[in-house]
Amino acid sequence: MQTYRRGSSFTDRALFIAVALLAIIWIAPIIWVVGLSFKPNEVLMRTTGGIAAPPFTLKNYTDILASSSVFGWMLNSAIVAIGQTVLTLVIASLAGYGFARTNFLGRNALFVIVLAALAVPEQAIIVPLHTMFAMFDLHNTYVALIVPRVAFPFGVLLMTQYFRAISPEIEEAALLDRASRFKIFWRIVLPLSVPAQVTLGIYTFLHAWNDYFWPLVSATRPEMYTLTIGLASMQTNFAQTEGIGFLMAQAVFAGLPVLILYLFFQRYIVSAVAGGGSK
Amino acid sequence: MAEVSLRQLSKRFGPTQVIGDLSLDIPSGEFAVFLGPSGCGKSTLLRMIAGLEPLSGGEIHLGGARIDILPPGDRGVAMVFQQYALYPHMTVRQNMAFGLRNIGTPTDEISRKIADAAEMLEITPLLERKPAQLSGGQRQRVAIGRAIVKQPRAFLFDEPLSNLDATLRSRTRIELARLHQRIRSTMIFVTHDQVEAMTMATRIVVMNRGQIEQVGTPMDVYRRPQTRFVAGFVGTPAMNFLTVAAVSDEAGFARVSLPDGSTVTTVIPTKALPSAALTLGVRAENIQPGGGIPARVDVIERLGERTLIYANLRDGSTIVYDETGDVQVSIGENVQLAIDGSNAHLFGADGRAIRG
Predict the structure, then answer these.
(1) Domains in chain A, CATH or no CATH each
(2) Which of A160, A213, A234, B76 could form a disulfide with A99 if both were Cys (CB 3.0 to 4.6 A apart)?
(3) Neighbours of A100 (CB within 10 A)
(4) What is the pLDDT of residues B246-300, one digit of tens each?
């Protein structure tokens, strides 16, 4: 009797080795960063190699906890990331449902405009955005940090496609069950789109948490810095000859919330990266 | 339950007319089946009654009141969809309760109605499950249950058996017929499967190209098809159609000659016949061996209790006839067939049946 064994072919083994190599190459800098974060700064001034050899220290982390600014920046990042995520989900869901299920004049043209926005690079609109927010005197506010990112064309596209994939018969059944349009959206369609919402939510949160460019332009007062800007502002030593361990500990610290998020929502992040909602 | 009346309905999708000037009355308590091939407009018609498809013209009345101006939820109809259309994130109980909650039914009444319907459909143990945890047949029952609890004035079924396997389909057919006997509600059932239509309907509405071809009881449609289309669509195997070469008179009834020279005497008065080309229609069970029409066996289909034999006449045309299951016959064998003229039909060039 023949049995089928996965990974028994040469191609599968070659693929496995290639993936393992890529994973090692990818993870090596992260391991290095984590390793350096536990090393005394004085040692790192001489060499940044040999992360496995003692001495080790927790001082870099205790220094972070002792610094008053880091937690404030982290809070700013959390407010901005959560705010962006919630608003993006609301806007993308409503717009996506509109595009997927309602028939209005100019729908297709409007959808093309949304898709075209995907091709507009962030850098191209940064000056007009800056001017606009300066005009309204909104820089250094949460509104300025959150609002420009919530009209997220990819989110609208994702939700539109997801809503389109939901059987129209389900909504028709709800119509016959005397549900209003909003009730159908709220009680039927929205709960069914949870996998897409989670995917989009994580994607938006990670993007917002790691965002550097717009907060750099908009947040000029240290108390409004997000974590990325705050950490960058501490790098006054351009030669990077001192305080490397502290810097690495900050990087690890900044990445912790994202790591926790990843552990909780691993399945959805993988499907988000794979380019579609997990059903 | 209520009478459904369709008055001069029409439906256009852009320039394409899919339903044209269609009128039909379905008496209260009837099990009407819309039967027709794919694309004949039967599902569109059902959706128009449900309010899911806007009308291009005409009116729909239910129990004497006009309903085509009302939204779907206010029409007093319940629909069972082809794909069941259960709410996947809700339990069976929540699925059944959703419509009742929307019309403000008190909680205890909702519970009672669900319990009654669940008992009737034998789905009580499934009430706390979600649709994904149910088999196709169970989902179907839940979809029917969701319709029953609303106590609609008319039930609409849109090919609800097409996703079930053959055994389950046959069982569900019987259960639906039983359900109709029990609740005596007006039911409209859409299908392209003539077996479903024949077994469940009190009246069949045969549709073709957006028009009604014939309305009648199952046996009426089978025995007295009004058009060639109905004759060919209803019945398995399809009715044999043979071109009539010449017509003569025999005691006032038409005797037709087939292209191979053989003749069949019908019970259709000669005076009723038009002068244009005619087609003889005869069902497989009305052809027996032992007559004077020579044919050669081409294909044998053994179905168990009966055998279908496809044979070529001398002019090359093929006819199919019925034999017993264990008949001894072989391909290439020459047989002599007899056509029962008393059960034969004649169709004019316009496709309409000619009656005396």
Answers:
(1) 60-273 (1.10.3720.10)
(2) A160
(3) 19
(4) 788 888 888 998 888 888 989 988 887 777 788 999 999 999 998 889 999 999 9
Q: Residue type at A195?
A: P
pLDDT digits (tens, 9 = 90+) for B301-325: 999 999 999 999 988 889 999 999 8
CB A77 within 8 A of CB A228: yes
pTM (2 decimals)?
0.81
| A172–B103 CB contact, under 8 Å | no
Q: What is the ipTM of this complex?
A: 0.86
Does the beta carbon of A188 lie under 8 angstroms from any beta carbon of chain B?
A: yes
Quick check: B88 and A174 CB within 8 A?
A: no
pLDDT, tens only, B163-172: 888 888 888 8
Taking the Cβ of residue A170 and every Cβ of chain B, the question of whether any pair is shorter than 8 Å is answered with: yes
Written out in words, the top-level CATH class of the domain with range B4-233 is alpha beta
- The answer to whether residue B13 neighbours chain A at the CB level (below 8 Å) is no
Backbone φ, ψ for residue B20 (5° rounding)? -130, 110
Q: What's the CATH fold of domain B240-347?
A: OB fold (Dihydrolipoamide Acetyltransferase, E2P) (2.40.50)
Q: How confident is the model at residue B45 (pLDDT cuts 50, 70, 90)?
A: very high
**Tokens representing B350?**
């316009």
- DSSP reduced 3-state for B354: coil
Residue type, B244: V
pLDDT digits (tens, 9 = 90+) for A54-82: 888 888 888 887 776 888 888 999 999 99
